[in-house]
Design brief:
alpha/beta; 7-stranded parallel β-sheet; 7 helices
Length: about 170
């Protein structure tokens, strides 16, 4: 199946994307995000606030070892992470339903930039102060009775859109 081993993965070219988890509570969601980040070879996963870090058996249950391949960094505060990313010249996009947000299908990436996407807490979403310090917000259109989706599902959809624009449609 042409899979990379961990050493090859660490040396491979990465998608110019950092995923930030803003106080994500579920360790299974964290593990699932690790696994999706591995699948698309993102640059880094930032775990912030109450978001749990490896090593952890519950994270491992859904990550299936991706916590060993994906580079990750912990920040006590998501705002500290956003400041660090800004200093590293990332464009920071919060994934949230808010006034002035861009619908995902209307979002066009600039291939000369590196991006960081902030994914919010399962109940409260992305903190308002993080949104206020972002370069913009993306929203996934929804047509049912619910107006939110699981954070790991949402992360997969966002990563796929970035991968599509940077790699697939290239």
């Amino acid at each position: 199946m042409n899979r990379l081993n961990i050493e090859e993965f660490k040396e491979a070219k990465k998608l110019p994307l950092v995923v930030v988890l803003d106080n994500v509570r579920s360790l299974y969601n964290v593990g699932s995000v690790f696994r999706t980040c591995d699948a698309f070879r993102i640059e880094m996963l930032c775990l912030c606030g109450i978001t749990a870090c490896p090593p952890n058996n519950e994270i491992h249950k859904t990550a299936l070892g991706a916590e060993d391949s994906v580079e990750w960094k912990y920040f006590e505060s998501t705002l500290d992470c956003v400041g660090w990313l800004r200093n590293e010249a990332y464009t920071i996009i919060s994934i949230e339903q808010c006034e002035g947000s861009t619908m995902l299908h209307e979002f066009i990436l600039d291939r000369s930039k590196r991006y960081a996407v902030v994914m919010g807490n399962e109940v409260k979403g992305v903190q308002q102060e993080v949104i206020d310090n972002s370069d913009g917000c993306l929203e996934i259109p929804q047509f049912g009775t619910k107006h939110s989706m699981n954070v790991s599902v949402t992360t997969g959809m966002i990563i796929w859109e970035v991968a599509k624009q940077f790699i697939v449609n290239n």
